[in-house]
Amino acid sequence: MDFTLHVWRQAGPDQPGHMELYQARDISPDMSFLEMLDLVNEDLEKQGIEPIAFDHDCREGICGMCSLVINGVAHGQQPATTTCQLHMRHFRDKDSIYIEPWRAAAFPVVKDLVVDRSAFDRVIEAGGFISVNTGSAQDGNCLPVPKDAADTAMDAAACIGCGACVAACPNGSSMLFVAAKVAHLAHLPQGQPEKRRRVLAMVEQMDREGFGHCTNHYECEAVCPKEISRQFIAEMNREYLKAGLQAH
Amino acid sequence: MQLDARIPAGPIEAKWDRHKAELKLVNPANKRKYTILMVGTGLAGGSAAASLAELGYNVEVFCFQDSARRAHSIAAQGGINAAKNYQNDGDSVRRLFHDTVKGGDFRAREANVYRLAQVSASIIDQCVAQGVPFAREYGGLLSNRSFGGAQVSRTFYARGQTGQQLLLGCYQALARQVAAGRARVHPRTEMLDLVVVDGRARGIVTRDLVSGAIRSWAGDAVVLATGGYSNVFFLSTNAKGCNVTAIWRAYKRGAGLANPCFTQIHPTSIPQAGDYQSKLTLMSESLRNDGRVWVPARPGDTRKPADIPEGERDYFLERMYPAYGNLCPRDIASRAAKRVCDEDRGVGPGGRGVYLDFRDAIQRLGRAVIEERYGNLFQMYERITGEEPYATPMRIYPAPHYTMGGLWVDYNLMSTIPGLYVIGEANFSDHGANRLGASALMQGLADGYFILPYTIGDYLAGAGPSRIPADHAAFQGAQAEVAGRQRRLLAINGRRSVDSFHIELGKLMWNKCGMTRSAASLKECLERIPQLRAQFWEDLRVLGTGDTLNQSLEKAGRVADFLEFAELLALDALQREESCGGHFREEHQTPEGEARRDDQNHCHVSVWEHQGPDRPPQMHEEPLQFEHVPLATRSYK
Ligand SMILES: Cc1cc2nc3c(=O)[nH]c(=O)nc-3n(C[C@H](O)[C@H](O)[C@H](O)COP(=O)(O)OP(=O)(O)OC[C@H]3O[C@@H](n4cnc5c(N)ncnc54)[C@H](O)[C@@H]3O)c2cc1C
Ligand code: FES
Predict the structure, then answer these.
(1) Do residues A122 and A226 both lie within one domain?
(2) Domain that holds residue A134
(3) Ligand 1 center to residue B150 CA distance, Å?
(4) Does A47 touch chain B (CB under 8 A)?
(5) For residue B295, which of A156, B210, B407, B439 sits 20 to 30 Å off, Cα-Cα?
(6) Is A130 in the same domain as A161?
(7) Which residues of chain B are within 8 Å of residue A60 when distances are taken between CB atoms?
(8) Does B275 fall in a domain?
(9) Residue B492: CATH number of its domain
């Protein structure tokens, strides 16, 4: 297969970026999207052009590092699939493919397709944890957790923190990411003592980082590679309201 | 080089408790006067950083990913072992200890393994308290599954994402310490050298991967939690960034490197599809709980799996190892798969694959149960291969996966350089010549949560706060060396890409020093690696500059280190004239093709000491004694 690529190139955070045109030739349909880019990069290097920078690590859809907007969609068209797990068999020969970085006020571009997502870490630091020091735990089975609660917590905890939700949202909101962490911990008995504090602190930090507000577009859910449900956003809104009322 | 393992005296059951009581303590008010440099944020580094900060130490944490949460541990799928005996099936600390020593083919230190089994139970408790959403039964209690090399059900799991959930647990604990001001995380920062002053580890030199800035960090102790080196084979199940640089740099500064030839080839990975392939994807060992491994009985049989009648299938693991069947240990399952493929009975492209079939399990349990247990793995398989494993059996083949070798450490997890600690996959300690499934997560968290926080205090209390600043001459020297190396890599300006060298090295290592090795193949490695290294330094081409994000430059540094390290790996494999665990020398096998250990001559840890650029490394031996698990031929029949 052959493709025409339009790729965002940007030398650094303060430099202007632009789209560049590259050709990808002899691509096997069994290649992953990133393997296709590896090949293009190999080609560029031969021509003396600096390779395209993009984030990736595990290449199996779990680390959350890969982050490309492909033909206008975060992680591409394939549902429930990260960029690294997207395979070229889903494209048509001779397609034009547009490749851009996550775009959001809270995720500044570092270089080319690489962005800075450290805002997510700061949101977790604000309260996305259960305060328990090492060594102070009781036996794991002293605290039965109903299976459905554990399953729901796991559904939410499956978030890989890639930031596609933010990239897809017209407002650059991180509600799905934050809600997933709030829900993961709120559905477990262990998470109860800090429940109120946690949701208030995380939402406050989220606003501080410059993420936008949720106006119910739900583009986030549509692109989420782990199919995190928007239901959690509704839950978080309720938790937030309750916590706010109790705080006053 | 002094190899004092510092194993405490007394009965094995009491060693750790007694040792803990004898370790020196740092007064709570003084802890903040000590700075610990933690390199790595996987299960080992993440859990250690959080625990040390909770104790009150000042912790600086480094990783090369853009967030601590993305360390390679995130990819672990199947589960974590613990001797809880919740299933009432006869598990105990003793049995987990026994299984691990035997699984490791008698090349691990008994005292360390016993301690690992002892603390395993606390790990589960800690993780539950943090909110790790482990799988549960309807009664609300924790669920277990079985893993290879064990006849009890002791593996705890969170769907097929156990590593992710455990890592998020310690990442969140670390985040709490960052918020409290006791820990600082430096992502996109790579350690490129260790600084040793007067024989003690005093700091590190790092490169900021975004700005290219090279700088020094001074501390009271350095901890390496930098993972394994499977990517020496280029294609492995590890994340692309996994590398040997941190431990290799430490080795070159004087730390002993142990058993580099103990590498694990995992039996169940998706077979390679083409030359362009950039990594191999693991299918968790947990699948072997319900999947049956088979190949056609007749060589050259190219019929579709569904067309091959039951009588013409060879369920070779069940046939060869009836007691453990599909759940025999990894080294054994991998070699059996290679053997049937060598007999021209392999399936799929190139005949390098065997089936992992869920037909019977789906019939027995129903599709819904299988979906709940393995749904995400099946999805992953389908995404990569375009085949539906509910209908067609999976195709699997062995792949480099884990490395048992690493920096040598004593019972306190300290390397041969005082003040340099090594935890997780980066050390050599607990798995001998073969690691059992679900034991790496256990070891990483044991080291980080429950061992290092005790033992490091003993060193710090003895040494007192360091007064060596980051502009000391030793730091300046190391920093200049690091900068010089970056410049040299950029200045070669040859014709070949970094990947082309890495791929060439990987192929060589896989073919000549992979699943099986021989004196001839290893000598070939030893001849070709230096040639390839020389070519690398003459013909490499890295574009761009060193003062911005430059991913080719990052890779070049890592591949340069792999090209040095690979030679030591081959050398170690050559001197170990026996087959044990993942190390299989063709010259040393039984008539049935099983590994033949040589306890007379090789019942030891091989520890390598760097002798400078112009002299071959020197090997030292730490003898191993087996008092509790009698040395025996490993049998899973
Ligand atoms: C696909 C897969 C599945 C697995 N499944 C299981 C399982 O089910 N059960 C099990 O027990 N084990 C499993 N394992 C093994 C297990 O995941 C690893 O052995 C373990 O997670 C290693 O943890 P670690 O903390 O030692 O290192 P890692 O998680 O590899 O972390 C290394 C850290 O070091 C950092 N680092 C490395 N070098 C540098 C440097 N030079 N400078 C700065 N930072 C650096 C990295 O950024 C990272 O933060 C699996 C492994 C793979 C590959
Ligand atoms: S590279 Fe890890 S999720 Fe894509």
Answers:
(1) yes
(2) 117-247
(3) 23
(4) no
(5) B439
(6) yes
(7) 75, 279, 281-282, 380
(8) yes
(9) 1.20.58.100
